[in-house]
Structures are given as structure tokens and as C-alpha cells.
Amino acid sequence: MFLFVWFKGIYMARLLAVLMFCVLCSSCMHLDVPAARIEFTSLEYDSGSYYLRFRSDRDLVNLYDAHGISAQVGTWVNCSLDGDTDFSILHHIQLSANGPVDEVRIVEGDRRYEFKAWFRFEEDENEGSSYRPIRKEVLLSLLKKQEYIPCMARITAFLYKAYYSKVMYIPTSRIIAEVEKEITAPEYVILPPEDRQLSWLLFEQICINETRYYAGTIIVHGGVCSGLPYSGLLSSFAPLTGQFQIVDSKTKQPRANVSYFIRRADGREEEGFSDEQGKTHIFGANQHESFKLFVSGDDVEGIGI
């Protein structure tokens, strides 16, 4: 049986709301609190996702509430992978690691707070309007050229300018150790018949499992069907299959036409819309694998079926 895990897709919605507000916030108030110190604790890779833990002498998740201001929108941690140290909210770092901070606990006997953030590595493709994940081999190449990467926590609140912590430095050796745990699917490129070498593989069935368009060039990933990871239409032939159902968070009734994507353990993502019964497409694998469902909207959730 698959291990089914799902997350609500609220990260991008929250971030877009903050960015739209900050454009209009040139005359906003300023929280008169010194920049907090933050210190790296750990980074963990688990089932296709990265989780960052760090500590601070201030409760960054409830900072505004602690000063009698109930306007805090959210807390994020942002790191630069390309040497760009401009962490201001309207500046877009091209190669970055970032994520929302949603968990906080008090460290006993230390009088400090420890935070947990869902962390991801991504490339800004178009000034903040679209992003794409940084592949494992590219990420390792970036990290091995540096000893540390700089990071900063950022807090936003309505009618207030963004609050920034002091800079935290994460040793790249700790990140590399976790990135190397990531399992990625091999890439295949289908050559036209005239460019293929003579082989018995010419008589094998060829399958396409991904088609991407990049700078006007069509990039096709595929290969011999028996050697490809199961995805898309191939899933129905997989030894193990699974499926999610998207339902209303309150009534638990199926919700149709909800946008979603499913992330596999190797980082590949499969997108779609739920059918009239709220069901996603069927996904498959050769062996037990973790899948995560991301849905758009705060009023829906996913369950494994």
C-alpha cells in the first residue's frame, strides 16, 4: 500500500497576496523591533520534501501578536544560491531556497524558539511570475562551489513594512548530504529513427512520458516502455497503483474540477483536475513509493482511495 500524504496548496496564494499588498505599501508603518538573530539547526530530506529547522531569540511566527498587533500575514525564510544577498520582498533572487515557516516550539532551558519550514530549491524564470524546481545535479553543482549560503527570515503584516531578521549562514555540506538522498528518475531522449544506432531496441515499444517546451524547442523524454518510470497513461500498467479523491473540507463531499498536482518521491510532478467524483488520475510505480497531493484552495482536502 502506498503512503499517502497531502498538503494544501496555500503557499503560493499567501505569497501572491503579500506581494500585491507590498506594492501599495510605500507609506506603511514600521515595527520598531531590532532584527532578530537566527541560527541554523538542521535540514532534513523526507519523502520528496525538505524541512529546515532554525532557532531565534524571538518568536517570529507570532512576532506582531506579541506586540499587540493582529495583522501578521506570514513568516518566510529565504536563502540565496547565487550570491545575491538582496532579500527585500520586491527583489527576486534568481536561484534561491525558500519556504513558509509554520511551526514553532520553545526550546526548554534555552529561552529560544525553534522553527520548522517547508523548504524548496527553485529558479526564478520570469521576475517572480513563474518558478521551476532546480534539478538535483544542478543544485549539487551550485552548492559544491560554496561553503555557506546566506539566509534571512522575513515577516509580513498588513499596513506594516516587511520585518527582516539578521543573516543566517547554512553550511553547504549539510545541504549536500540531504540533497544526495534524493532519488531522481533517469532522463531519456527519443532520437529520430535515422539517428538511432542499429539495435534490437528498434523492435521494442517506445513510450513518451514527458513533453516540455523550452525556448521554442520541444524536449521529449521517453524510451523503451519496459524501462520507464510509470507515469501518465503508463500508470494503468504499473504493478502498484494509487489515487486520491479531493473533497470539501467541511462536508467531505467530492469536489470536481479542482486543480492539483501530485509529487512523486523522485521530485517529478503530475498535474490535473479532479473529475466529477473528485478523483485524480491514477498513478503507479514498480515498488512502494510516497506520493504527495497539492491542491488549490483552503476549502478542499485530499484523501487516499
Structure description:
The protein is mainly beta and 305 residues long. It folds into 2 domains: 31-179, Immunoglobulin-like, CATH 2.60.40; 193-304, no CATH class. The protein is 11% helix and 43% strand. The chain has helices spanning 11-23, 63-66, 136-143, 172-179; strands at 3-8, 38-46, 49-56, 72-80, 95-107, 112-124, 131-133, 148-157, 160-164, 168-171, 206-214, 217-224, 240-242, 244-248, 259-264, 269-273, 283-285, 290-295, 300-304. The strands form 5 sheets. Strands 2, 3, 4, 5, 6, 7, 8, 9 and 10 form a 9-stranded antiparallel beta sheet that branches. Strands 1-18-15-16 form a 4-stranded mixed beta sheet, with no helix packed on it. The chain has a two-stranded antiparallel ribbon with strand order 11-12. A hairpin with a 2-residue loop joins β2 (38-46) and β3. α3 (136-143) runs antiparallel to α4 (172-179). The termini are close together.
